[in-house]
Amino acid sequence: MGLEAGEVFVHRNIANLVPNTDLNVMSVINYAVRHLRVKHIVVCGHYQCGGVKAALSPSDLGLLNPWLRNIRDVYRLHERELDGIQDETARYKRLIELNVVESCRNIIKTAAVQQSFHERQFPVVHGWIFDMETGLLRDLEIDFEETLRDIKKIYNLAPA
């Protein structure tokens, strides 16, 4: 990446989820934004994601159930679009993409990100997908400012 130590701050979760109830990931975002003043946050998913595949299975997966519920909720939010995709592999890939988009939205909903953007015009949140078959990285082109405007009606946590 051509970067020095400390220039990349990484947090990993199963299925690249960023649920607001995960105090670990929320702490990482808060620290990165408020203390390290990161300018970019990237949620990078990948095709062939086992977590998303597991969430598509309508079965009891024990301790994973609460975690996978986040992905199942993404499916519920986009059910009409996903159910309209006949090809099972294409539907699975699209759910992986939508899962990254929703994780990006969850980051944008945080007070740390909103307040920092209000004060400094950063960080900007990006959603990417890594295709392990081709080695290509795909930018989902999250429009940060449009998403921020869309969520502010309910999630406005920046100072007035």
Describe this structure in words.
The chain is mainly alpha-helical and 160 residues long. The chain has one domain (23-138): Carbonic anhydrase (Beta-carbonic Anhydrase, Chain A), CATH 3.40.1050.10. Helix content is 49%, strand content 12%. The longest helix is centred in the middle third of the chain and has 21 residues, at 88-108. The model has no long low-confidence stretch (mean pLDDT 93).
Fold topology:
Blueprint lengths: L22 H12 L5 E7 L3 H6 L9 H13 L1 H5 L4 H21 L2 H10 L3 E8 L4 E4 L4 H12 L5
Parallel strand pairs: 1-2
Antiparallel strand pairs: 2-3
Going by CATH, what is the homologous superfamily?
Carbonic anhydrase
Largest sheet: 3 strands, mixed
What is the overall pLDDT average? Answer: 93
Helical run tally:
7
User: Which structural category do the helix and sheet elements fall into?
Assistant: mainly alpha
Distance between the termini: 38 Å
Radius of gyration: 16 Å
- Bin the helical content: 40-55%
Shape: globular
Unreliable residue stretches: none
- Number of separate strands: 3
Q: Which strand-content bin applies to the residues? A: 5-15%
